[in-house]
Write a structure and sequence with these properties.
CATH topology of the largest domain: Metallo-beta-lactamase, Chain A
Oligomer: single chain
CATH superfamily of the largest domain: Ribonuclease Z/Hydroxyacylglutathione hydrolase-like
Mean pLDDT: 91
Number of helices: 13
Helix content: 40-55%
Strand order of the largest sheet: 5-6-7-8-9-10-11
CATH class of the largest domain: Alpha Beta
Number of domains: 3
Low-confidence stretches: 1-20, 23-27
Distance between the termini: 48 Å
Number of strands: 19
Amino acid sequence: MLTTLSGTTAQVGSPTSAAPPAAGAAGEFSAELHRLRDRVIAVRCGNNNVGVIATAAGLIVVDTHRSPSLMRALAERIATDLGRDDFRWVVNSHGHWDHASGNQVFPEAIRIGHVRCREYVAASTLGSPRSRWSHERRLSRLSQRLADSDPTSPDAERIRVDREIERAVVADLDGVYLPTPPTRTFAERTEIAGHGVTVQVIYCGEGHTDHDVFVWVPEERVLFTGDVFCSGHGFCFSHHALADAPRLVSVLDEILETGSEDILVVPGHGDFLTRVDLVRLRGLARERFEGVRPEKSAARFLSDHAESVGWVGAANRLETAMRRRPDRYDVSADEVAVLAERWLGRGRVDDARRLLDWAIERAPDSALLWGLAGDARWRSGDAPGARRAYERTLEFLPRHRGASEGLEWLRLSAGSPPR
């Protein structure tokens, strides 16, 4: 079968797009299985891509989708296609729930991820009552959108697939889902080698998260990139001082310098990319981040120093530096928000709360900061503080959906904490 890759038509083995749906506990999921190389396949379910690399010693799964029952159905589909079910390794490109929620399906596997990925998955609140309520609301909205759409339209089919996936998520959040973090972690790079194929797992710098990794299979010329790229024309993160563009460019240089002309790139979502796309993205990274000044970013300073001395030490160092040179550091609400979200995701709730309080003193009209402050207060069990922060958010941005939902949840739950 010919599959269109970013405007070019390339032979991609023998994908079985028309194969029957994979059966799951919450229904049936349409899944396209693409045989990319002799030893590499990708399964697309909804807009998520799950990778599988076949080695002599076992199968390597790259990312595990949005729910255990859905990943279990996909694993059955993969095992049927390959004629084997020896899933030995799981690699998480990053810890977001839509890429790591099926980890528990492989309890005997070695689960590999960046050291901060383990923190992120371990701190997940996906199984909390508030999270389940939020997913139930999304399921209701999808059902309404489907009812309002033309049942024969392509949009209706996409909504139908999203609804079935969301049904699986909601069902699994009813006591089935368990946060299952990586068991083998690293800071810079690691590899799975000696089994007929080499798989390199490379930290590509802060970007979409603070723990993004690429999975590179040089013999097969396939690169899994998680959510670093949204398409062949852009990134899944903003241009700011907390993004490590130089490291990303360096890793892309390393891969492109192998000289392979037929590199196939599998992003976390959407269509596959080619070497041409990778070259373009490398150029965009150089161009768009050229004017970013990390040395002037207060958020970058706090992020770097808090890793070694904690929030208090980092804040004291920054205040000292700012007293000496008041014009040296810029306090950007956008960058502080990125850092706060990262810390909340890794369970550093107290640090995130203090960071947001510090930033709000300097930007008291920021709806972005107030909204995150509401989340941090809720996560710390301070329901009255969360309510005040969400109400403050809506004063500045009345259509702020997160704050509106936060207030509704607080009313429904009487302020119960996430656990």
